[in-house]
Amino acid sequence: MADFSLTPAQQDAIYADGGSLLVSAAAGSGKTAVLTRRVTRLLCDEKLQLDPAKLVVVTFTRSATAEMKQRIRASIAQQAQLHPGHPFYQRQLLLLGGMKLSTIDALCQQLVKEQFQQLNISSRFRVGEERELNQMAQDCRNEMLQQRCKDQDPAYTLLADTLCRDGEGPLEEAVEQLWDFLDSYPFPEVQLEAMLELLRSRMSPEHSPWGKALLPMLLHRAGELAGGLEQLQPVLEDDALFGPASVEGFHQLLLGAQTLVQALTQENWDRAVALLRDLSGGRCTPRQKKAERSPELEQALQDRQQILEGIKELQTLLCCTGAEFAQDLDWLQPRMEALGELCRDFTCRLNAEKEKNQVYSFSDLTRMAVQLLVRREGEDYVKTDLGRRLSEEYYAVMVDECQDISAVQNLLFWGLSKGPDRVRADSEDYLTGSENLFLVGDVKQSIYRFRRATPELFVRRGELYRDYQKEKAFPGRILLSHNFRSRKQVCRGVNLIFSRSMTKQFGDLDYTAQEWLNPGAAYPDAPGMEAELCLVEETDAFSQADYIARRIRTMLDQGFSVSDGGKLRPCRPGDFCVLLRSTTGASADYRRAFEQAGVPLFASQQQGYFDSYEVAVMLELL
Predict the structure, then answer these.
(1) Of 144, 182, 474, 546, which sits 20 to 30 A from 54 (CA to CA)?
(2) Parallel, antiparallel, or unpaired for β 374-377 and 380-383?
(3) Strands 100-103 and 126-127
(4) What share of the chain in percent tops pLDDT 90?
(5) Are 354 and 136 in contact (CB under 8 A)?
């Protein structure tokens, strides 16, 4: 990273005190340096005399933890050298090991070990391997299903008749998926009961959670389709190009699309369903033969066909009336009640097996840690005695990569932070009431939804927190938008693409000027530094790898300039990095393409020993 002086926003993030802060840190904005300097500033404040044990600092990976520990220790050691013989800095160095600087998993594991008696578990528990835990879950699930089948259990019989045609596979999968989903909540049983209550409530589709999620998307898409038809109106209603039947058919199509938008705006569900079912393209036959048609007419016909495909997609989404929706719920509810019963049984068996073997997953430990700090009372979260004691003990709770925390982890940090001891679970106070949280993240870099991350929490906090103004607004929001890692050409390219593709509906936020990357470091000018978007028509992995390899070969041969220490030099193979969505199945193609281009390649592969190319060849020979 290029050298840089602190920006005003970075200074605020380091020195602001008096309440909770949310730091939205863009890529390359120096967030790790800011977080490290904030911790160091607190520990080196002689007036504050802060014991390191009163800080909770959470990072996302063990490597990030090790790096931050090293930076903090080096900074305090530097202060000790500048003040020889000063006991304060020496004491801070000695006490630094007591600071809770770790990953979330390590934090929860330590808390559970310290409080194992309250949980009524053995102090000799361990974290199980993924394969071991999966096998344990599979055995418990099979045992549960076999016992219920043997007993001719009504819940099992109902689900088996519904799902199973060739074996219990679909039923096993349904139980596993529901259990995995509930495992992402701090109180799974409460969540399960809330889900079942939705089915029992018999609410109308437009007022149901599904309808509320679906209607905005349908309205947006219907508006796009109606707008597209309006743009085609001058061509497709031209009497010189189309006969009366075709013109009238298009007119009815346009009128139906516009009326659909009105119905969706008014949340008139049944009216929208009826309109969609009647919406069709009708005849659209030009007077001219295909060879005689203008390019504009051909394009209009293609656009019309694409709009009709979009209407079909809407018809699959808005597929039932309110009465049909109620009938579906009548059919679905007893089956979901049965699935919930099986899931509860499976969870009890699995928990008993884990307790018997004294082995747990990190997810189990996180939930145990939450249960030590927080309990659920009706609609409220309430801190336990331990939670109240710890929240008063810690001076600050700092969380890095906050955009990728889960709902369970979010509740953990609420339980550890200062603030009200009771909040409504779905209230704004739950997100804004804490008084000593320091949260750093960037929703644009959220990549762990598959690990139950909930970036919506970060986005919602950003909406609720106020812009920080010198200790006048807490909880405060600070935006680090200067990028010190990339050239201005890269920043402009990212802004161009993201501003046209990232919206609240697709990406959790609107990529406006406030979210732009602003170049913060100076690099020497050189030709050819513009960002490029290259489209390779071939979709197979080798064609894409071949294009990349040949492009790198050309840049190496031409001596393309790169910046190194503020000076330009010819590029080397080690200056290039190829990022893939997944290396699975692609490593061999890239290895072959780069070998043909004469470009050295090091590939990071996530595969077992027996799956590696060299060992696989020997296994084939054997």
Answers:
(1) 474
(2) antiparallel
(3) unpaired
(4) 70
(5) yes
Q: What is the crossing angle of helices 169-182 and 188-201, to 10°?
A: 110
Identify the top-confidence range among 132-146, 450-464, 523-537: 132-146
Q: Could you tell me where the beta strands, DSSP code E, fall in 419-481?
A: 422-424, 437-441, 466-467, 476-480
Q: What is the pLDDT of residue 617?
A: 64
Angle between helices 295-317 and 209-236 (to 10 degrees): 160
Give the residue carrying structure tokens 């009372």.
377
Give tens-digit pLDDT for 386-415: 999 999 999 999 999 999 999 999 999 999
**CA gyration radius, the chain:** 30
Taking residue 20's Cβ as centre, other Cβ atoms within 10 Å add up to 24
Given a contact cutoff of 8 angstroms between Cβ atoms, the answer to whether 439 and 461 are in contact is yes
Write down the H helix ranges in 379-445: 385-393, 407-416, 428-432
Helix, strand, or coil (residue 476): strand
Q: Which residues pair with 58 in a beta bridge?
A: 102, 399
pLDDT per residue as tens digits for the range 67-101: 999 999 999 999 999 988 889 999 999 999 999 99
b or e along 490-528 (b: 16 or more beta carbons within 10 Å of the residue's beta carbon)? bbbbbbeebeeebeeeebbbebeeebbbebbbebeeeee
C-alpha distance from residue 4 to each of 29, 33, 234, 582, 586 (Å): 10, 11, 56, 34, 38
As a whole number, mean pLDDT of residues 558-569 equals: 89
Q: Quote the pLDDT of residue 2.
A: 41
Closest CA to 336 of 200, 147, 173: 200
Residues 423 and 433: beta-carbon distance below 8 Å: yes
Torsion of CA 507, 509, 514, 519, to 10 degrees: -20
Q: Encoding tokens for residue 90? A: 């020496």
The DSSP code sequence of 125-163 is -EEPPHHHHHHHHHHHHHHHHHHHHHTT-HHHHHHHHHH
3-state secondary structure of 360: strand
pTM of the predicted protein model: 0.84
Q: Strand 422-424 relative to strand 380-383: parallel, antiparallel, unpaired?
A: antiparallel
DSSP secondary structure letter of residue 183 = T
Mean pLDDT of 2-31: 86
Per-residue confidence (pLDDT) for residue 606, from 0 to 100: 55
Enter the DSSP assignment of 468: P
**Residue whose tokens read 């801190």:** 383
- Distance, in Å, from the CA atom of 614 to the CA atom of 611, rounded to the nearest integer, reads 9
- How far out from the chain centre does Cα 400 lie? 15
The pairing of strands 55-59 and 396-399 is parallel
Question: Backbone phi, then psi, for 582, in 5-degree steps?
Answer: -155, 140
